[in-house]
Design goal:
Blueprint (H helix, E strand, L loop, with lengths): L5 E6 L20 H8 L5 E6 L20 E4 L2 E4 L25 E5 L22 H7 L4 E7 L1 H14 L3 E10 L7 H12 L2 E3 L1 H5 L8
Parallel strand pairs: 1-2, 1-6, 2-5, 6-7, 7-8
Antiparallel strand pairs: 3-4
Helix pairs in contact: 3-4
């Protein structure tokens, strides 16, 4: 096991983000065995889960004349529009069937407010409401987090950046993530932003070997 001060955050490994889903991340299902292997090495594993109401503001279907990928201006700022996905209690919102969810100590649902999107596992996109993840990790004595899941350029990225801002040492596990790539180049941009913020990009082999992945 890795030290008790470290936790694994599994971000949105849900059916709608895997091949065949409403907002499929290319090769998104390929990370599932990697995530399962990682989860077996951590004493604390938590997950996030997109959990949208059907009238969610991020759905292009709720904006007449708009298409997925369009950007609209809302009261709170710009909003990328997506296909209808991860609707509460739908099959698409469920975790991938081969993901070992029995390892999760807690699941933190996000995107539940129809008026605002929520990429990060910690806060909504305007940082007005918290999911409870930060409080849970602090109460558990965690000061280092390893982030994996879907998608690199959105929910993984913002979960990692918020974790840094909250004072955690943060590693993102490259081979346990996949990006959606909307718009083109967004995955590369996300990695640049994360590294600039102090996130350590690592490979699962290093984590499984117990290597100290954080720079001195």
């Amino acid at each position: 096991m890795l030290p008790d001060t470290a936790a694994l955050i599994v971000v949105d490994v849900q059916n709608d983000f895997c091949p065949g889903g409403a907002l499929a991340v290319p090769q998104g299902d390929e990370i599932v065995p990697v995530v399962n292997g990682l989860a077996s090495r951590f004493s604390l594993v938590v997950a996030t889960q997109d959990w949208h109401p059907a009238d969610h503001v991020s759905f292009a279907a709720n904006h007449p004349g708009k298409q997925p990928g369009d950007v609209v201006s809302l009261e709170d700022g710009p909003q990328v529009l997506w296909p209808v996905h991860c609707v509460q209690n739908s099959p698409g919102a469920a975790f991938h069937p081969r993901l070992d969810a029995s390892r999760f100590a807690r699941v933190f649902r996000k995107g539940t407010d129809p008026r605002i999107d929520s990429y990060s596992g910690f806060f909504d996109n305007r940082r007005r409401h918290a999911t409870g993840l930060h409080e849970f990790l602090r109460q558990s004595g965690v000061n280092r987090v390893f982030v994996c899941g879907l998608a690199t350029d959105y929910c993984v990225r913002w979960t990692a950046l918020d974790a840094v801002a909250l004072g955690y040492r943060v590693a993102v596990i490259r081979d346990a993530c996949r990006g959606v790539g909307i718009p083109p180049g967004e995955v590369e941009k996300a990695w640049r932003e994360m590294v600039a913020a102090g996130v350590e990009p690592v490979q699962s082999q290093s984590v499984l070997a117990g290597t100290d992945v954080f720079r001195k």
